[in-house]
Amino acid sequence: MEQADLIWHNGELVAWEDAKVHVLTHGLHYGTGVFEGERAYETPHGTAIFRHRDHLHRLFKSAELYYMPIPYTLEELRTATHELIAANELRECYMRPIAFRSYGQMGLYPLDCPVEVAIAAWPWESYLGEAGMQEGVRAKVSSWRRIPHDSLIPHAKASGQYLNNVLAKIEASKAGYQEAILLDAQSFVCEGTGETIFVVRDGTIFTPPQTAGILDGISRRSLIEIARDLGYEVIERNLARAELYLADEVFLTGTATELAPVREIDDHRVGSGEPGPITHAIQRVFDDALHGRDPRYADWLDVVKVPSKAV
Predict the structure, then answer these.
(1) Please, which of 22, 57, 159, 161 could form a disulfide with 33 given CB 3.0 to 4.6 Å?
(2) Residue of 20, 61, 140, 157 marked catalytic
(3) Domains of the chain
């Protein structure tokens, strides 16, 4: 990965290589942490973080669900993110705020371990690559099922439970695919390893509901609003696995991925095998929203003044 100069850690900007934790950190051993993925883009008004407050709000809700009081306010973390981007002189970047149980006590009871917070920012291309965004990706339905509501909390973006996604990603990669699609415990379509999923059939867009064990995706919310603004009907309902193969178009969305069409699932060609017209229409408006070119979505952008690097 491409490093930046500084990381914000517990209220201070420290050198990238000095952002360290103890080897007995509770979150390292038991996964007791919550995190977010955010992106900042160049816009006509300067560098802007996409839906920054929404991401931070979800970070705090995830922490609350796992009994982790974050020792900073939302506004303090918002300001810290702005300072970090400016200090690193980044025009566009990916950001990773994380709160985790730190060193203090070993064992499964975590509440006596202090909560630390860090924010990193660095240049990072789309999770599935630029070619994946333009041409589409090949996906595989994973043999691993998405964690159910009665085992962990799918709505929380928690560190430990991402082992579920890691297993699915490794399986798909070893089989020669770029992404995995997980089913839920009832065998309905759930989501990708780092994205939510949309299926287009006969001009209508379908996406799994919150009850399917999906993450409450911020990019997902954005695309639903954009699609409806474009006049498309969006229906949230359970989707059978075969509906993936019968779809005219399928696309994935998430902060790291942005929007990636799916051209093939389990060696079944999706539609024509190329990104479809509805996918292209939504992708175009989404990209305009991310880069501040569409005034309808201006309130999604948190502008921060960042000095430009000398060319």
Answers:
(1) 159
(2) 157
(3) 6-122 (3.30.470.10), 129-293 (3.20.10.10)
